[in-house]
């Protein structure tokens, strides 16, 4: 290429008549023009930047295996060396056979197009062979990478002199900066091949389930054939037209000498060879790998909160390696579905969240439910992200953990005696203007230790503890510190948050857990307790990288010492009897569970929801089971569970059974780890026994 002698068409409009003159202009000057605003096209456009080309974002599990792709245009960038020579030869033969000899503009084609335009005296510029591969790349980049609305897309492909001159100018500048192979690779990365495939890598996968490097001659010829008009030459909808044009490409390849007549004849004997069905990559979290839709949704929400908006995720070409553990995810899905089978238990949701404890991060390993993420309820799908969405009826007595923690912080000991009557009337709190009175199972004739109360879960004991505390404030504060931060921040009536409403109204029932609760946050509470009281925000991200492989910094909320380690360790021991002597003992025994762990069941009024939260030093998890029918109804824990008029669902039934079904296989290869020792100062406390 000789830069100084490269010509360009300059069109002058005089008195409504188009006069064309071929003028010789140095390429260096054209390059300056190419980076300047050009009128009549919309926004200023310089040289095409591959960084602007929309690429699919890939979300993977912790091992790097993809679970979902987010995109507007499914496109995978390809190195020039990874594209088969036959693919390059095919597209050059049919689209621009003088590609390797011209300087970005085919002047013979331009002259022919200008002459045609002058002959018709029309405003349109039909191109008539004038568009080279370089010019097509310029146009396609403007169309697929830069145009944001219909008007800009129309302008990008308008048959006007303004648009053609822009293509010419930028094409000449590109040829001065890039090699032919680089331009050809960029073109093949950008062009649309139909059926949702943008770029040759997506097309090779979609039509042939292969890679650009492995494309055969007939496959490459078909892809080159499609480019001209993807709808007209669609191999699926227009197979005859596609076949005829593929054979035309083969003939063109013979004419330019890239293949022999014998090779062309052999290729013509093959059919289209398109896979059935097409190997299209579905997009979005609804199309994520089976069972991972909720995790995908959580990842997207997590990233959007940290500054990567939805459009960036669909176009930015990020790789998001998540904390999802395939083994944990499979175990959680299997357990949720076994305990509440989809299709036979309409109106009941069963959600599981698994978190890895730690003092530097709480990594989310699994988010699962008995339903899939999706819009079709008839197919067992739900639009709600069940493991990370608040269950409106609450988690029941699981919230007694927060009352116990507040009592320990106030000076009570885990082995202090507390009252457990069958009936208790508060001396502090009211309900509807009357003293707040509770009854409930788990009562005892004599006082019991706080540790025993956590296992037996008498409602009366924990309302009595609230009386000792004098206010619900320290319990709400403790719930927030240990991890129920988003749940307490949900909107309540009167423009207040749930936490604010509970405090303002001094709702003693808070200790019984009737407020909305998020399964993942409950799992994180357990993780906090077995992490020495260190709260970390649950995170689903290992790392995020951009299209170049560079790390993407994401804002991170630091971990914090939510409660003193001594308190957390002592409370963990206090929660260790539920699976041996308490309300989850039957479920633990049926599962053959014999490891030290913390646990707490919960059941809400009318048995509309129930839960179980627990942890070993290695893993934490929570399960909530609830009626998601409209209107809600009580749930009976049968085989299978079902909606009923008088519920029998309790935290020790379906939720605990789901928990053990999830966690048992995950601990098979883990050593038995002991719970921490309680702090001696917190065994009997520094204040007198409650009551």
UniProtKB/TrEMBL annotation:
Keywords per UniProt: Carboxypeptidase, Cell shape, Cell wall biogenesis/degradation, Glycosyltransferase, Hydrolase, Multifunctional enzyme, Peptidoglycan synthesis, Protease, Transferase
Pfam families listed in its UniProt record: Transgly, Transpeptidase
Domain Glycosyl transferase family: from-to ranges: 64-253
GO molecular function: penicillin binding; peptidoglycan glycosyltransferase activity; serine-type D-Ala-D-Ala carboxypeptidase activity
Catalytic reactions of this protein: [GlcNAc-(1->4)-Mur2Ac(oyl-L-Ala-gamma-D-Glu-L-Lys-D-Ala-D-Ala)](n)-di-trans,octa-cis-undecaprenyl diphosphate + beta-D-GlcNAc-(1->4)-Mur2Ac(oyl-L-Ala-gamma-D-Glu-L-Lys-D-Ala-D-Ala)-di-trans,octa-cis-undecaprenyl diphosphate = [GlcNAc-(1->4)-Mur2Ac(oyl-L-Ala-gamma-D-Glu-L-Lys-D-Ala-D-Ala)](n+1)-di-trans,octa-cis-undecaprenyl diphosphate + di-trans,octa-cis-undecaprenyl diphosphate + H(+); Preferential cleavage: (Ac)2-L-Lys-D-Ala-|-D-Ala. Also transpeptidation of peptidyl-alanyl moieties that are N-acyl substituents of D-alanine
Any one of the GO BP annotations: cell wall organization
Source species, domain of life: Bacteria
Penicillin-binding protein transpeptidase domain location: 364-608
InterPro entries assigned: Beta-lactam/transpept-like (IPR012338), Glyco_trans_51 (IPR001264), Glycosyltr_51/Transpeptidase (IPR050396), Lysozyme-like_dom_sf (IPR023346), PBP_transglycosylase (IPR036950), PCN-bd_Tpept (IPR001460)
GO cellular component, one term: outer membrane-bounded periplasmic space
Family to which this protein belongs: In the N-terminal section; belongs to the glycosyltransferase 51 family.
Alphabetized PANTHER family for the sequence: BINDING PROTEIN TRANSPEPTIDASE, PUTATIVE-RELATED, PEPTIDOGLYCAN GLYCOSYLTRANSFERASE
Protein name: Penicillin-binding protein
